[in-house]
Design brief:
By secondary structure, this protein is α/β, with parallel strands linked by helices. It has 11 helices and 8 strands.
Amino acid sequence: MPRNFIRAILFDFGGTLMYGRQDWTPIIAKADEALTNYLRSQGMEINLNTFPTEFRKRLDEYFKQREQDLLETTYTFVLRELLREKGYDDVPPVILRRALDTLFSVTQTNWTLEEDAIPALQQLHSLGYRMGIISNAGDDEDVQQLARRFGITDYFDFILTSAACSYRKPHPRIFELALSHWYCPPNEAVMVGDNLDADIRGAQQAGIYGVWISRRASPEMEKQEQVQPDASLSTLLELPAILDRLQIQ
């Protein structure tokens, strides 16, 4: 047996297996407006002109905090808190869920699966690798819906989001929880992602090999010299060869 016996692959989702086709600013504005209209249709007297901005501002405040403490704040929590301040206490969970589904039905139209994702997943599956997704996301159902829409769920043993487990990459706990699905030691797994800090540094600090996919990386990301991935690639189809090299190191 080689010194490294890689048997499990963890994938990031956004920026790795899928990407946004267009600029997000108008998409998000349309999504926030759709959420507001749904809430108004449920009898809530909220201002169509101001509520979308208030909701996004509140989300952004929590997003800044989560980057510091690496603890996820969900969209559900933020929406419930803002509505409570508007005088709507104890909004039924089903209404909150439908409101968020309305929002995500807009944002999901901008996500596109990478062309090489399914061919790569098919090849890796045929080679016997176990696969899972770990994604930093403020809403678990949004991620699950996207994976189902793309038809990729059968390739993965699990899809773990920070919204579901509370911890955001690069926090080591989310990696530990992912590996626990397989009772897999860290040195038998790799993490494939586009973010050098969240995906690569986080994986390496958890003892997992970090494989950086650079095609969606921003210029600022490419300048991060403090994080050195164990391997780099520009397409997912390069991954089987990368894994072969890691096996024999």
